[in-house]
Amino acid sequence: MHFELSEEQQMIKQAARDFAQNELKPGVIERDEHQKFPAEQVKSMGELGFLGMMVDPKYNGGGMDTVSYTLVMEELSKVDASASVVVSVNNSLVCYGLEKYGTEEQKEKYLKPLASGAQIGAFCLSEPEAGSDATSQQTTAEDKGDYYLLNGTKNWITNGSTASTYLVIAQTHKELKHKGINAFIVEKGTPGFTIGPKENKLGIRGSDTHSLMFNDVKVPKENRIGEDGFGFKFAMKTLEGGRIGIAAQALGIAAGAYELALAYAKERKSFGKPIADHQAIAFKLADMATQIEAARLLVHKAAWLKDQGLSYTLEGSMAKLFASKVAMDVTVEAVQIHGGYGFVKEYHVERLMRDAKITQIYEGTSEIQKLVISRSILA
Ligand code: CAA
Question: I want to staple 291 with a disulfide (CB 3.0 to 4.6 A). Which of 70, 76, 77, 326 is the partner?
């Protein structure tokens, strides 16, 4: 067993850390306050190759491994989870889905600009009545011969207004239930496709979350991904990798809050010594560091399994379940260590605490991860 990072992985991690500290940190509080999408920063992340990290270079990707992707996600998320969710959705849900299951024409037309960061994508599965219960798709895609006619509403779509390319899941053959579901590539600006207002969220407030409405949207037949009826499996397989990315995001949020709490505890004095020298605080830091390290091992193991071409369904869900709980617990403790300062925006930890909560909700709630894990261990 090797736990060391390769030289290349260390360099990627350092590049992401430098970018996060130098480019994401300035302005992160204001972007959170005003729900401002980090447009310039996303452009820079595209130039750095963070938006199509694992895609084959022949489609403009970075050709990197999943472990490297989790390192980047961790470093970015330490500072700005609103920016890192763009990286996660674009890499794991959009680029991965297109590269793995798209046709050569789809890859040329849609994957290349997404992997280079020239465009960003969105993954549209959730609906008002179909969040966790993803088989209950109400959005319909009627087969009209040369094209499909798309009707319905999608909810909570990350990159909802900033994306150019949308992967949309919809029901074609209702009688076949999940086996009648399809996945489609829909371009922004297609007539009948409208974008609802931005959601006003508790956390990841800079990220661009919208409802999307499809009203008699014509989607060319060649924009269906995979065989007729492959859409649900497409969504499930894609989400499996997504869970590793979000687990890494949760890990980063926890590690970011921990780094701030550690630095603060060494500086802040009470009763004549740094608060870190009080056992009450030192033991908190010990627990936080241990939880983070355990989460990191789970995240890296799931990523490593994916890189080996082995099954990672169970480990990806375990990593997400555990890391998101760690993110929540550690950020609460980081606020506590900061005392009153932790409750104000300037110290960053209150934002990390708010951001942590979404990691227990999106790409499958913690309850969904427990379902996947229990089914796997009981099978
Ligand atoms: N890989 C391949 N196939 C899979 C699969 C997987 N990981 N999981 C399920 N399937 C297949 C099953 O084999 C089955 O196929 P067959 O009938 O051919 O055997 C089919 O899918 C149905 O499976 P289940 O009977 O297990 O379906 P279910 O409804 O009981 O449970 C679920 C499935 C795990 C709960 C699933 O619905 C799920 O993951 N739900 C959560 C959805 C989710 O994560 N939503 C978040 C939206 S995306 C998001 O947040 C993006 C964003 O913008 C940030």
Answer: 326
- Determine if ligand 1 sits within 6 Å of the CB of residue 288: no
Catalytic residues: 363
d(CA 228, CA 212): 23
Residue 374 Cβ inside 6 Å of ligand 1? The answer reads no
State how far the Cα of 246 lies from the Cα of 249, in Å rounded to an integer.
Answer: 5
Atom of ligand 1 nearest to the CA of 122: 53
Q: Answer whether 79's CB lies under 8 Å from 24's CB.
A: yes
pTM: 0.97
Q: Do 84 and 29 touch, CB atoms closer than 8 A?
A: no
Cα-to-centroid distance, 136 and ligand 1 (Å): 11
Q: Ligand 1 in contact with 240 (CB < 6 A)?
A: yes
Domains of the chain with bracketed CATH: 7-120 (1.10.540.10), 122-231 (2.40.110.10), 238-378 (1.20.140.10)
Residue 251 corresponds to which tokens in the numbers above? 């890990």
**Tens of pLDDT, residues 310-335:** 999 999 999 999 999 999 999 999 99
Distance in Å, CA 111 to ligand 1 centroid: 24
